Each structure stands twice: as C-alpha cells, then as structure tokens.
Amino acid sequence: MNQAILNYAAPLSDSYILPVVFHIINQNPGSVTDQQILDALKDLNDAFARTGPYAAGTGVDTRIQFCLAQLDPDGGNTTGITRTTSFFADIDQDLEDDRLKNMVAWDPARYINIWYVTDIKSEMMARFSCGYWSRIKEGGYATMPPGVDSTDGIVVTGFGTLLAHEMGHYLSLYHTFEGLDCANSNCATSGDRVCDTPPDGSIGNSFSCTQPQNSCSSDTISGFSVDVPDLINNFMDYGNDACHNAFTEGQAARMRAAIATQRSGLLQNECAKPCAESIIAGFTRNNPYPLPGDLVSFTNTSAGASNYQWLINGTVFSTGSNFSYSFSSKGKYKITLKAYNGDVNCYAIYTDYVIVTCGVVARFYPDKREIASKASIYLDSIYFTNRSVNATTYQWLMSNDNGMTEQLVGTDPDLKYVFQNPANYAVRLIANNATCADTSETFHFEVHDPTADGVARLYSTKCFNDTKVKLSLFVCNNGYAPIPSNTPVSFYENDPRNGNTNPIKLEPSFYLPDTVKGKCCGTVYEHILNVKHSGLNKLFAVFNDNGNAIPVQLPNGSLQESDYQNNTTGITNFSYNVIVTPPEATLLPGDTLQLAANAEPGNTVSYVWSTANDLSCTLCPDPILIAESSTVKKVIATSEYGCTDSAFVVIKVPPADDFSLVIDSIRCEKNDSLYSSFTICNGFSRGIVPAGLSVSFYDGNPSQPGAHLLGPVFVSPTNNNSLCASFHHTLLGIPGGKIFAVVNDKGTSNPLQLPNDSSILEKDYTNNGAGIIYIRDSISLLPADTAVLKEQPFPILINTQLQDPASAIWSSGSGYTLSCYQCASPVVTSFANAIVSMQIINPYGCALRGQTKIRVFYGGKVSIPNVFTPNKDGRNDVFYVLGGKEVLMVKAFSVFNRWGEQIFQLKNAPPNDPGFGWDGRYKGKESEAGTYVYLITIMFTNGTQGLYKGTITLIR
Predict the structure, then answer these.
(1) Residue 234 resides in a domain
(2) Fewer Cβ atoms within 10 Å of its own Cβ: the N or the C terminal residue of the chain?
(3) Are 867 and 881 in contact, with CB atoms under 8 Å apart?
(4) Mean confidence (pLDDT) of the chain
C-alpha cells in the first residue's frame, strides 16, 4: 500500500473532486436532514481547501474537493444520500463493522462511502501507566488504501473536524503521533511518513492551541532547521478539536498520490448527473426488521416523476406508485425504485436493502478490550454487555491459545469474567428464542501477563568520604502488578553473576520504602554504601536479590517477576577524578600557559596547587603558569562529599638561549698582540647577552688537535638586555693564519667539547664558533711596479685601510725625486730604475711598510716582457703591457696555459699599468711556474690595431 504512494510523485498542480455518498443509519434516519448533510460536506471542503472557518489556519489548500454523488451505481440520478432504519446505528467496531456495511454500501471503487451512526463502541487505544488504565474511545474510523472490499469507507458519529480527520485516513494519512515515539531515521517511512510534519511522541494531550508541547527532539533529522512544537492544529492530531484547522503540503501531496494510484477509481466523474431532468427518487418502508412471511409496505416519496418501476434484485415487480411485498424466506433483498417521466432513459434511482432474519440478532460489547490478569498476581475482568434482539436465552463461549478449548462460561444475559491466565482469548455469544438462534461475531482480545518486572536504575553515583559511595537510585516496574515495599536491592563491586570474579557484596542493601505501581518508575532515593576503601569505580546493583548467594542466581527473593534478565545493572567511571589540561607541556622561558583542572562527578569545593612559584594563583581551578624552568605542578581537588584526588602537570623548559658569534675584525696591536672586535647574538627571541658569558680564541680549529688557546679568555662584564652586543678584546701574541673564536667556552677542554659550562645552557652548540683569516694590516702603493719614460713624473698612491694615511713617511733614495716626504700622494720623477719605500704606524701601534718599483724605458712603440715573478716582492710581480705614446689601449689581453686553457683575460685596459695585468693567479689560486702563451691586441692612436703573441715565463 504505502510503496505505491512513495513511488508516485503527484504534480503540485493536480486537483481532484471526489464523489461521496452518505448512508444515514439511525433508528429515525429522517431526523437527519439533507441540509445537515450539505453543511457537513461544505465544512469538509472548507477544511481541505483552507477556506471558510479554516482560512486563518497555517495549513495549505490540498487541491482536493468532494461532491455528493449525482450518478447512482445503477446509472440513475441520485442525491448521494441514503437512509436506513436500524439498531446498528449504535455499533461495536470490532464485532459489527461488516453487519453495518452489509446493510447498504455503494461500489467502494467508485464512491467514498460514509456511514453516519449515532455511537461507536470501541477502544482505539488502551494504555496502562502507574497503576491505572487510560482508554480512548473513537468517534469515527476509516479504512486506509487500497480498501478494495465492501467494508471500505468511513464511519463517523459526527461531522466537522472528525470527518476531515477520517477522510485523511481514507486518503492514506496516518496520525501525526503514529507509533507514539520520536523515531525519525527516515521521515518518509518513520512516524506518519510525511516529512513536513515533525515527529510527535504524544497522543495529543496538549490542550493549548497557542502553546503546544514539543514531545520530540529529533525534528531536525527531517530537515527542520530547529526543533519545533507538535502540530496540535493538524487535522491528523488528537487533543483539543478547537485547534484543528490544517493539513500540510506534505500531507496534501501524499493524499493526491493515493488518489492517483490506489484510489484512481474515484476519478470517474460520478459528480455529474446522467441526465438533465430534476427527478428525485425515494421511499420509506414500514418494517425495518421483517421476519419470513412478513408483508413490507414501501411508500413512494419521489418528486418530479410520473412513472415508476419497483425492482427486487433487479427484476421489475410493480409500476405502481407504492409497493408491498411479502418476503417468504430469510435473506438480503435489494429493493430499487426507478422514477422517470416521458424519457425512460432519464431516471432517478433510490435503493434500500431488506434483510430478513429469523428475528434474533446476537449482539454484545465489552467494556474493555485489553487487560492484564493472572491468578495470585493481579486480577482483572471484562464486562460483556448483552444487547441482543428478540432473544430469551444466551450462551457465552470462550477459548484461548494457552490450553483453553472453547467452552461455555456463562448463560446470563451479561457476562463478567475474571481472567485467571494471560493469553489471547476469543469470545462469542449465541442468542436464542423458542424458534431461532443467532451467533455474534467472535471478539478477539489479549490478556497480558501482569507479573511485575522490576529494574533498578542507578541515577547517579558519587564518591563519599573517600571510602564510601553515595548513590541515587530508583526502581521501574515494567509489569502491571505492583512491586511491594521492602523489596531488596543488593550491591557488589564486581559482576555477581560471574563465578570467576570476586563480587564482594557491599553493605548495606537497599530496601524499597514504597510500593512501585505497574508500568511506572518510583521515587528517586539516596543510599550510602560502605566500600571500606577508596577508588571504587565499578558498581553492580541487583534488584530483588537477598544477597545470600554468589554467584547470584535469580529469583533470589520473594517477589515473582516475569523477567529476571534485566535485574542486574552496572555503572562505571563514577570515581571522583581530577583531570588537568594540559597534562604536560614544553615551553620557552617566559611563555605563559593556561592550566585547567576539572574534577567530576559532582561538585568540587576546592582546588589546591603546589608549588606556588610561577603560578598566578594556588586556590583556583585555572591558574596561569609563567615558565622559568622545568617543574612539576600538583593539584589536589576535594569534592562536596569529602573525596580527594590529585593530578600532575609536567612542565619542560629546555634551554632556549642560542649564542652565536661573529669576528668583526682582528688588528695588529703594539706589534706583539691582536686587537679583536666581535659581536655576540642570542637566537632566543626573548634572550639577552648575559654577564659572565665567556669567549675563547684559538690559533686553529679548536675541535681538532693542535689548536692553542689565545689568552686571556673574554668574559662579558654585565647583562646586555638586547639580542646582540659588540665587544673588544686584546689577545696576546700575533699568530698567523686563521683565528677561531667560540662563545660560551671557557677554554677548558682540548679538543673543544661543548657545553663545558653548565651555568649558561643553550639549545644549539653547533653555531657557537666563528673564524677569520688574520692578515696583518698592510699598505700597497699604486703603482707597485711600473715602467715609465725617463724623467716622466707620475704620482704614487697609497692603498690602505688605515684611517690616517697622511702620516706616511717616505724614504729618500737614488734614481728618483719626490714632491714630498710626509704626504699621502707624492709625485715621483724617475731617471733610473728605483724602489720607492714608505712607512705608516697604525692606530694600534704596529708599523706598516710599502714600496713601489719603477722601471724606466727610453721610448719605443710596444714593450712586452717575457718573464715575471709574481711573488709579491714588489718587483716584476705583474705581467702587463708597456707602450709608448702611440699606444691608445690594450684592446684584448689573454693568457693560456700549456693545455690551451685561457687563464687570464682583459679587455679595453690602459697600457703601462700593472693594475691591468696578470698577477699569476687563476681562479684565486697561484699558477704553477712555467711558460704561458699570450695573445695581445693593441689599438694605436691612429686607429690601427696590432696583434702580439708570444710566451711569458712565470718564475716563482
């Protein structure tokens, strides 16, 4: 049934008009007027269209309407209303539904049959809670699709929202509270199978239209953005009828889908008259309950017709205005009146069914339809009210599926039966008189086992005074019979059902102080167990256990129960416990860390931290720690019940300082010492250069054997509150080569192994050292080695890093004259080869000397030497081109080794300048002594070029 609806996607634009026929079943059916039916139909259409009194509702127009059928099943005009006199106007739904509908029913595939009765004996829902039954009686009922048999339709005792509700069922809608739970795993198959109605776990006990309850918290699974209240205003809900005014779009779509698939036979246009004449057929009869041989008179009440045909089971028996007939035997007879005028094909029809019986009708109804009863446990009864017709004697027959074959249990008109055993029962009534008998339908019902079924629930469990446990518990009764007071609950440390463990029964046991009613949970009680040790974190409770047998085997008490499998319950993780976050941390000095202690279960009255140093507070759950050094912090928590627990935080503060050093310069000092300038930096972002930090200097790599400490060791005198600081230090001696310095080194290990000073630790010692090649302060003269024309004056320049080169003292000698002897740049005039020397004293008291070698030539166009000695003695150290005035520039100058590899190249250089020549080095290294090939292109002042090639000998 439901799968067809789920698989059908009805277009939102579909609109339907469905035919209905009202069957008025009453002891006086004429008391219900046609206008009352028309009013009921209008109200039904308003409810489905959200118009009239329902216009202010929050629902939708379902696009479904209803009409009184205008076409009779036999093809004639009809009013869509039938009237039947019968005592079945007051029916028992379980026993007499088929008898009611057997009296009159139109084709259920083409029409919606609505039987209007005066009362319905029923019990739609029976619920037992806390010792009492609540029973809900129905005002109507309907068959769900597809409903293909003759009982398909709707039975109501009234109209308005009741009829709208039952029509919803007829068109496939369930109650909004279907299942009475909040299950919502799939809104298309859970609950009422509609996704825009929120789950509803209540049967509609909210009597406030403006403030309905919210019985479920699973609404958002259906797509609701938030949890919403129950739809108390929905036609498919129960509760206050005044609230009902709405169908949802999802419900409308489901009903349209049912019409288009399972009830598509209703779409045959039975709402249109077969012909235009205004004819109404109708009749009454004088005997509603005829016996065989009784004459029944039918009185014509038609209007607008002049001709008539009376038919019995389809055969014409009379064409008179009225009709009488004697029914000779029992049976069901279809009486049809066809009324028409001149056109025999345009007629109206009215049909009634005459049911001839022997005169006895067996009828009864029970006052309850679901009970729980068992001898010696909890007894209940059902009262069966006899309302048979024309009977004088009675037989009540009963059976069950628990060994009771059908047997006579009573002969009085009514039967009150006390049930000794639970089972599925069947009961029927045979009614007799002197001439005939009738048997009722069989009433099937269940008598539940009322035996108590207790379950102990541990509501909360907490440590108490370290060696006790304070718990809250309650007992629920899943049965019907009450659980008496003084029923015991025993407690164990381990599972008492397992013989392989040591259960250890705890004292004292708990005894129920009150009775727990059936299908109910009792009061929450507090109980204290004496555990006699701390740290209990697992507890088992056994209901209805006297505690005199281990392992526990139930029943072990005086109370009889229906189920002993649920008597044992356990709880863990209730020991008072404090947790600190984080449990450990690695920090840098000066870092802050938020600590947090949380103890549970229950309330904590105090937290105490130790030690106090580095903590912002000690009597709080969440102090802030400022890291200084590695430490362990402890917190002790105390509960409101006097239990304590402690936890620890491990703080690791590894060395964060990271010293590195750069040698800025090394200078000669007083010709016997070195003056060092260096900078120390700390790689830690919050670090400083502290006092007491040592720096050692070595004349070689101190990590290798053979290096010597150059004393004295430097020690920083004060704290320098910055990441970098510069210092000066004098070292004794003037070693040559590379000088090494190591920060945070006292010079006490050979070879060097860091750390060798535990007072100032670092995170990284690989970057503590630095080296520099010490080169004695020197000067150079430009040119250092030159050839000039005889008596051609030229200046000599001093190349030095000294700040005051003007303090130079030039020496006098033969072969040249100087323009000054205590100046920075004298002009020299050479008339012979000569060496010009000079001396400067540096700022640290070391003497520096330099010289220039002058070679004089007597003219000529180009002069290229064939030997040079690049030994830095100031004489013939550079291989360069000498030229006369005709030489404009050295266009290209290349030197090749013996393998043809070019090792020197120069372009567009001036001649006669050793600064533009080859110094005998290749790629920073001194070339081997030997013969090299040169190619030199010289551009002359007249614009010509000359190519010179030859060999040059390098001598070391």
Answers:
(1) no
(2) C
(3) no
(4) 90
Asked if 457 and 473 count as a contact pair (C-beta separation under 8 A), the reply is yes
Round to whole Å and give the CA distance between 174 and 135: 20
* Residues contacting 345, CB < 8 A, separation 6+: 275
For residue 953, what are its two tokens? 């000998």
H-helix or E-strand spanning residue 352: strand 347-356
Tokens of 626: 């400022």
Signed CA dihedral, 283, 288, 290, 295: sign only: negative
**pLDDT tens figures, 168-220:** 999 999 999 888 888 888 888 888 999 999 988 777 655 578 888 888 888 88
Residue type, 770: A
Determine the residue type at 559: L
Q: How far apart are CA 950 and CA 868, in angstroms?
A: 14
**Position 857 confidence tier, pLDDT thresholds 50, 70, 90:** low
Q: Are residues 621 and 485 in the same domain?
A: no
Q: Where are the beta strands (DSSP E) in 653-723?
A: 659-669, 673-682, 694-698, 709-715
Q: Are residues 147 and 8 in the same domain?
A: yes
Is the peptide bond prior to 508 cis by the omega test (within 30 degrees of 0)? yes
pLDDT in tens, 82-97: 999 999 999 999 999 9
Higher pLDDT, 671 or 392: 392
Statement to judge: residues 71 and 23 lie in one domain: yes
Q: What is the CATH number of the domain that holds 426?
A: 2.60.40.10
Averaged pLDDT for residues 789-794: 78
**Residue 778: predicted pLDDT:** 72
Q: Please tell me the distance from the alpha carbon of residue 203 to that of residue 164, in angstroms, as a whole number.
A: 18
Q: Could you tell me which residues are beta bridge partners of residue 443?
A: 427
User: What is residue 1's predicted lDDT score, i.e. its pLDDT?
Assistant: 36
Domain count, the chain: 8
Pair (299, 348) in one structural domain: yes
Residue 622 and residue 649 in contact, taking contact as beta carbons nearer than 8 Å: no
Please report, rounded to a whole number, the percentage of residues in the chain having pLDDT higher than 90.
Answer: 67
Q: Per-residue pLDDT averaged across 911-921, rounded?
A: 83
Q: Is 304 exposed, middle or buried (0-12, 13-18, 19+ CB in 10 A)?
A: middle
Length of the chain (residues): 956
Three-class SS state of 54: helix
Coil vs helix vs strand at 237? coil
Bridge partner list, 21 = 113
Q: What's the domain range around 391? A: 364-448
Total-model pTM: 0.66
Question: 476 lies in a domain?
Answer: yes
Q: What residue spans of 636-717 are helical by DSSP H?
A: none
Three-state secondary structure call for residue 280: strand
For the CA atoms of the chain, what is the radius of gyration?
A: 59
Per-residue b or e along 33-66, where b marks 16 or more CB atoms closer than 10 Å to that residue's CB: eeeebeebbebbbbbbbbeeebeebebbebbbbb
Q: Which residue has the tokens 């006490």?
A: 748
Instruction: Provide the 10 A C-beta neighbour count for residue 460.
Output: 14
CB 569 within 8 A of CB 457: yes
